[in-house]
Amino acid sequence: MSADPVRDKQTVTPEGRSTKPLIDGVKLRYAVTHVHADGSITEIFDPRWGLHPDPMVYLYQFTISAGHIRGWVVHYLQEDRVFVSQGKVKVVLFDDRPNSPTYKMVNEIFLSEHNRALLTYPAHVYHAYENIGSSDALLINFPTRPYDHANPDKYRLPLVNEKIPYRFKS
Length: 170
Hints:
Blueprint: E1 27-30, E2 33-36, E3 39-42, E4 60-64, E5 69-74, E6 80-86, E7 88-95, E8 106-112, E9 117-121, E10 125-131, E11 137-141, E12 155-156
Antiparallel strand pairs: 1-9, 2-3, 4-11, 5-10, 5-12, 6-9, 6-11, 7-8, 7-10
């Protein structure tokens, strides 16, 4: 066993952004919260940012209880555009697109009310959300298609499965 210390590898840029590559088609736009004497304001989405070409057609919010995981889910028709508004969440993505340059890549993205961001990911990318905080997490999604109650574009796998090479510690 060596007694020599091992230098840490770079994990963030000087601006504080992760150096890890994202799955092809995944975009992450960090939000700025402006604090005022009477509260704060955070911009969630503006089409002028060019983050996603599709218009906003449907919007909903969802919560995840502390210590719980929602997923694995995949969509074949819609893309998700998700904003973490409150709480502390680990987002895990898995690229299941055989023709993608990042096929079978896994991303872990950590977001919270102190590190808010708008996250977009394409169809055929599995996703799961783990609330790693001590209170409910609040997320806002405005997918590229309205929800079809009679024929949902939502397909699920159990958390432990043979397809996705990721295991949650919880």
